[in-house]
């Protein structure tokens, strides 16, 4: 890896894609700064990473709160890689999505990455290198009958990718998004229940993704192997052909 320090803000970094990303990057030698809301689960993951020979510390913060998000950036300190993996999804019809729900989606999925990049990317630029990876969603390009607020918030994150690549690229900071299709996580299991098998039929591979597969893509975008990749949205979806939540 190019770096030893990674800020990894995510709502629930102790589960799903966030947990897989943290473990994978730690195995590659990165000192990982974990974010989440549940301190007990966060500290448990710190111990798990340490048992695997890695180094991590945990910072609790609420990404729906702008001040708390900026505190997270301050406590993370100077970083060389920023993984924005915040994930809030409430799949409801538009008429049943109130203003508070819409604002929560924007706050976690779009505003938090914006604030964290604004706080941490300038330091990367001063040092002449860095990588920002956003974990997006296929919902940004494959509409479904529900979840417009989620799709809009993830589409906004993709737009930020292109703007930041232009803004920070000349200073040596790359910005890319990985866009997963349906992935089997605790969240998708809770949402789909006994219908979880529907995800397998949503892509050309005939099998839903795993958090570990997405983590490998994040590591590629974060590291030197992708040095000529900037401002890109990389689809990690098995050839998705129908809209399902990821």
Automatic annotation (TrEMBL):
| Keywords, in A-Z order | Oxidoreductase
For molecular function, the Gene Ontology terms on record are: oxidoreductase activity
Pfam families found in the cross-reference section = adh_short_C2 (PF13561)
Does Iron show up as a keyword for this record?
A: no
- Transmembrane stretches, by residue range? none
InterPro entries annotated for this entry? Answer: NAD(P)-bd_dom_sf, SDR_fam
As for family, the record states:
Belongs to the short-chain dehydrogenases/reductases (SDR) family.
Q: Which protein is depicted?
A: Short-chain dehydrogenase
